[in-house]
Amino acid sequence: xxxxxxxxxxxxxxxxxxxxxxxxxxxxxxxxxxxxxxxxxxxxxxxxxxxxxxxxxxxxxxxxxxxxxxxxxxxxxxxxxxxxxxxxxxxxxxxxxxxxxxxxxxxxxxxxxxxxxxxxxxxxxxxxxxxxxxxxxxxxxxxxxxxxxxxxxxxxxxxxxxxxxxxxxxxxxxxxxx
Length: 178
Prior knowledge:
The protein is an all-alpha fold.
């Protein structure tokens, strides 16, 4: 599963607000856990969180929270579930202000992907000045579970940065815009 994710999805620039919301939920859920765990639960998250529709998730109430806490197919952490609902509300506010979450987040990144040139996995940072700034801005807008490390992981996953190693075939494909 992780190899397929790497080869087909990780680092590909995202420009769809539903996909952005999906990554916000999944990256927040991943905090303290392995990404493989979240990948295995991804379809369960899609079902539990209304296809990652932020307008629907923003309306989740206590009854839905209780059902999510009983859903073994997702990470049953009350803080993470409640934060996903709050993040949906903050996400909708960003869409209203900027026209789309995509415009907001790419604007924060200068409009295009940052192409790094790492030769070894030990060179890849867990956070950067840019992820620090993104985290600070998201938190100021009411988002939760968006610390700098989570933001950098999201930046990597969604193509805001190309952190494939230079000898990885995906590095060259994504650097050329494929």
